[in-house]
Amino acid sequence: MTGIEAISAHNGWSIAIVGISIVFSGLVLLSLTISQLHKALDIWERRGAYWERFRRRGPETTETAPERECIYLPPNVKESARQCRLLVEHLGQPFPLPKLLEFSDRCGLDHPHSTINELLLARVIIPDGEGFYLWNDNVEFTS
Amino acid sequence: MGNLSDLILQFIGNTGYYMLDYRYLTMLIVGVVFIYLGIAKRYEPLLLVPIGFGILMGNIPVFKGLGLAIYEDNSVLHYLYMGVTAGVYPPLIFLGIGAMTDFSTMLARPLLMLLGAAAQMGIFLTFLGALALGFAPNEAGAIGIIGGADGPTAIFLTAKLAPYLIGPIAVAAYSYMALVPVIQPPIMRLLTSRKERLIRMEEPREVSKQEKIIFPVIGFLLCCLLAPAALPLLGMLFFGNLLKECVVAERLAVAARTSVIDTVTILLGVTVGASTQADVFLTPQSVGIFVLGALSFSIATASGLLFAKLINLFLKTKINPLLGAAGVSAVPDSARVVQHVGQEEDPSNFLLMHAMAPNVSGVIGSAIGAGVLWSFIVT
């Protein structure tokens, strides 16, 4: 017996289809597992930190969100502060102050020196202790 | 005086020169060609030289009943050949392969494993082809596995399904593995455009030692629970890899990848070569096996390439489809061919490291394929 008839008689189609499906399933399963392996190991490595975070979120030790501070800024400075905030987002945090000044100048911000000085005095921009600065997100502007 | 002349005539009648016919002569030439290819052309010398010499050993015509030929029960070669027929040597070779294989690139880019799976289409399509040509299902399964491009796997499955075909199937499998640099490039060029061959691969991420240690355990459990018939091959492959990666068993890993695999390769090569005794080997069936073997290799290469092109349709960062050709598990030759063909287009494009991922996953895939065929055909 030869040809298609022989294949059908010996159940060849089913063996081939199921066979290649098993090979694919095996390697897909292995592929999916090992693609997640490094993530699982990463979680295992940082299990202490995750546990700590979980513990802090527990009902007995719930922490209240830090209170937001209200700061008065004149309307023109408030608008400049909003623009500065966008520039800081662009620069990334922590950022060097001269860079912020340079960007503010380049973007045509009104009186960049005095605006940044006001923001420093109002503790909207705060030093990180390592020569760079951070934007204090816990402040709200009023005018 | 009469006795002396009888003795001399008897001696002459017993010599190989007297018993030599065209079939043995043909096989002796084949043996010499194998040795030549292995030494002069450096095509898989570690395999072709022992097999070639084994062919010479198996094709010296000898008197039946003296216990000299490999198919005689009391011959030394027969005892050595038992390691092949009982399926002992292939798992030991897999142990050595596991102890020398670095799965890092595969772990870094698991998607490439699918190319190794796609290339196994060659096994099953050739199985259908062999059935269509009139081979029995057990023979068709043994012939189909040539497409896995993995010598030990082919020998292991043939020993289980059709032991009388070990000679032609092993010789076909190893010949085509040695001819990977000749068979694959035209198919690769035919099925890919220049633009595709120029695609550069992203640098793979760094793989941690922990991942490398955990992988053989997870890989073994997942694959062998799915296809338990692949246990002898995959068990040894992953065990060898665990020895390599765990560091604490370095002595065993060194033994597995040096003395164990070398000894078994010698025994396997020589006995497989010797099993090609002319009266058993030179049959129309062997010609059919060689034709189907070549077809199987080509289908496997094409399947890998086309699957790579298919998954590119869904990927943002395209992969070089040439990597699909490395899915046939001729390690590391098909990966080297990918590198070579890629560098013909762009000498600064290094694909070898990336091609090792489908290449080693092809080894796993072909072992699963062999296990599947074995369980389906035997039960």
Describe the protein's architecture and organization:
The complex is a heterodimer of chains A (about 140) and B (about 375). Chain A folds into 2 domains: about 5-55; about 70-140. Helix content of chain A is about 60%, strand content about 10%. Chain A has helices at about 5-10, 10-45, 45-55, 75-90, 95-105, 110-120; strands at about 70, 125, 135, 140. In chain A, the strands form 2 sheets. Chain A has a two-stranded parallel sheet with strand order 1-4. In chain A, strands 2-3 form a two-stranded antiparallel ribbon. The radius of gyration of chain A is 31 Å and the shape is elongated. Chain B has about 375 residues and is an all-alpha fold. Chain B has one domain. In chain B, helix 6 (about 90-100) packs parallel to helix 16, helix 11 (about 150-160) packs antiparallel against helix 12 and helix 12 packs across helix 19. The longest helix of chain B has 29 residues, at about 285-310. The radius of gyration of chain B is 22 Å and the shape is globular. The interface of A and B includes residues 3, 6, 19 and 28 of A.
The helix content of chain B is over 70%
How would you state the average pLDDT of chain B, rounded?
A: 90
The spatial strand order of the largest sheet of chain A comes to 1-4
The count of strands of chain B amounts to 0
Largest sheet of chain A: 2 strands, parallel
> Which quaternary structure do these chains form?
heterodimer
General shape of chain A: elongated
Instruction: Please tell me the overall pLDDT of chain A.
Output: 82
Question: Which structural class matches the secondary elements of chain A?
Answer: mainly alpha
Number of strands of chain A: 4
Number of domains of chain A: 2
Order of helices and strands of chain B: HHHHHHHHHHHHHHHHHHHHH
Share in β-strands of chain A: 5-15%
